[in-house]
Amino acid sequence: MKTIFEKSKGVQGITLTDEKENLNFLNQNLLRNREIGLPNVSELDALRHYKELSDRNFCIEKGFYPLGSCTMKYNPKVNELLASLENFVNLHPLSDDVDCQGALEIMYNLQCALKKVTGMDAVTLQPAAGAHGELTGMMVIKKYFETKGDNRKKVIIPDSAHGTNPASAHLCGFDIVPVKSNERGQVDIDELKNLLDSDVAAIMMTNPNTLGIFEEQVLEISKLMHDNGSLLYYDGANFNAIMGYTNPKLMGFDVVHLNLHKTFSTPHGGGGPGAGPVCVVEELKEFLPVPVIDYDGEKYFRNYNVKHSIGSVKGFYGNFGVLVKAYAYILMMGDNLKEASENAVLNANYLKEKLKGAYLLPYDELCMHEFVLSGEKQKHENGVSTLNIAKALMDENTHPPTVYFPLIVHEAIMIEPTESETKEVLDRFVEVMLKIADEAKSNPEKLISAPHTTPVKRLDETLAARHPDLKFVQ
What we know:
Layout: H1 43-56, H2 77-83, H3 86-89, H4 101-118, E1 122-124, H5 130-147, E2 154-158, H6 164-171, E3 175-179, H7 189-195, E4 200-205, H8 218-227, E5 231-236, H9 248-251, E6 255-258, H10 260-263, E7 278-280, E8 292-295, E9 300-303, H11 320-333, H12 337-355, E10 371-374, H13 376-382, H14 386-394, E11 402-403, E12 412-415, H15 423-442, H16 444-448, H17 461-466
């Protein structure tokens, strides 16, 4: 496909005026003395060019997107419509409270909804995404102990955790102490007991964890931590599995971040936008970032009077458009949020049972919203790696799952179907995965050289990410 510059033939798409403007009133140093170098094509050719480019992108509307631990569920278009209403998109973030009561009411009501689904007592909507929420939560924990005069230095993190967990804790100055998983893919309680001392500030956990397995001993873990004077942090990336059935407060957690752009159905593809609200128990309420959104019975307002606040963590106040979409989704679903979790868990277990014969299943447990297979058998027997399997899926109009994570599973293939997909879509995915498993035996070279039908073939992923070629030179 040619670039728009290569298609340039000197044809103008639109002529604004045939009058020559006298620019003598401008400083001559501000005027361009050469052609700007933009392409010249007709309006129709420009439309066709960018339509063709868009067709090359993969999106949730184009095919199945089973991206484990990222919850790429379908985002209803009504959410986009509501967030794009003129009075929302044209509202300046520096508007006085009296002039943005509607926006503040939405944020306040969203806070109330999130308190209900998490069981927590207070919320900040400021963080821009999940990892930012993690950082905010760990800053709250650090400030809490500093205020008590208890300078704890350690944070315990399971070996199956999201990679952002240790990064967020370390950025706050904590030392990271890993805790191993047991043979069932859950936190090893005996190992945890051996790690506890008076210097442990918190444990960061995901439940269900990144293997898609529910931590059955979470209440014992909670008691161990609290008896040690430590706190529990809940990574809410996997919240799509538990809505309406349980919540972090019931499990004994003190801090939780939520990925609104995952669980509550706002767009996540392409790196954003996101939102990562942090919810805390009553004891940590006075440490949240300022301002918090409050209501005095008559008006909604941004409250800066938070005694031990860690300060603001984002310019203005969060990603407002994402907050609107998440609130719209919650209102639309109502009590059916529980049903979303039911279907997500059902879909994941259905796929797991269909595929575990063709691929290695390292932890054969009842899973929640996601599960982890391994391509180790295909690699050992036929030289077909998990990366080859992922590339082959691209030829089948399916986005590859998360691969090589969590690190405790060799050749990991992490699959999350979400609740959005029908049984027909899931059956088609099973058919494709079984086909790839068969081809690994009969024609491994085809998989090793995949993909074959995509606009761009094999890339060096590391080089492409670190040194993208974004400039066209004629």
